[in-house]
Amino acid sequence: MQGRIIFQPLFECSLALALFTAGAQAQTPLPGADLERLVQRVALYPDPLLAQVFTAATYSDQIPDAAKWADEHHYLTSAALVAAISSDHVPWDPSVQALLGFPSVLGMMADDLKWTGQLGNAVLVQKSDVMLAVQRLRHKAWEFGYLRGDAHITVSNGVYIEILPTRPDYYVVPAYDPAVVFAAPKPGFVVGTAVSLGYGVSLGPALQSLGWARIHMTWDAGGWYIRDRLWGRTWANRATYVHPSRPQEAAKRVETHELIARSAKEKEEARLGHPRAEEEHHHR
């Protein structure tokens, strides 16, 4: 009996290790065409926003709760939003917290959680391939005339196409149909109408503290930096990795604000890329 007591934990540990190893090997890389289909809905996002989406997607289990929180607190902006995130002790990864000011983006990720999980897994397994897929799509959109800068974004066309906000405190969320912008335009189609850059989010000094300062992609090296620190989570270290910028674990989550979900009209305006115009909400 005593021998069985000693053996059983050892057997369970060996089994757990075997299962973990098998799980780590189960995620196989995707071919380039599949990666392009996976990233096409976000490939034209400004680089810093894209980096936050890629990072947050690797925490796909946190997205539904975060999207719900962002939707119900969408009427809070700037310092009030940051204060709410702090006072509510939200427990999510900093990349997920950074998107709380973008309820439309989190909502898109939550509405298609299968896609979000697949994107996150691809980022963990083959991050540089994911970034190359984005570049291939951007070059197609540029070649066909759909991708151009405006008052809100600058587009640098070179070996790597960078898309950056013209103002560091204002981010547009491009709205477009991937079936249109990554294919040659049909005769008579006005390419200038294919990408809407009307919907944007203001990031004041307070929101910069959520990780929007000093974030940039290194396209040639296949990675990105958040707060000037390289983000290095992979499939192998996903259970233990902690980015250097991660704050201390928050206390137990609480709710201290009135919950007011976005209206159907507000959601539709964001989906279509129309300028953000908050409806009047009577809240405390």
What descriptors fit this protein?
single chain; 284 residues; mainly alpha; 3-stranded antiparallel beta sheet; two-stranded antiparallel ribbon; 7 strands; disordered C terminus
Q: How many strands, what sense, and barrel or not for the largest sheet?
A: 3 strands, antiparallel
| Succession of helices and strands | HHHHHHHHEEEHEHEEEH
Treating each run of at least 4 consecutive H or I residues as one helix, how many helices? Answer: 11
Write out the strand line-up for the largest beta sheet, numbering strands in chain order.
Answer: 5-6-7
Shape: globular
- What is the assembly state of the chains in this entry? single chain
Beta-sheet strand percentage? Answer: 5-15%
Number of domains: 1
Q: How much helix, percentage-wise, in residues?
A: 40-55%
Give the helix/strand class.
mainly alpha
Number of strands: 7
Structure description:
The chain has a three-stranded antiparallel sheet with strand order 5-6-7. With 284 residues, it is mostly helical. Helix 2 (32-39) crosses helix 8 (113-143) and helix 3 runs antiparallel to helix 8 (113-143). Helices cover 45% and strands 8% of the residues. It has helices spanning 2-26, 32-39, 47-57, 63-72, 78-87, 94-98, 103-111, 113-143, 178-181, 205-212, 264-271; strands spanning 153-156, 162-165, 170-172, 200-202, 215-218, 223-226, 229-230. It is globular. It has one domain.
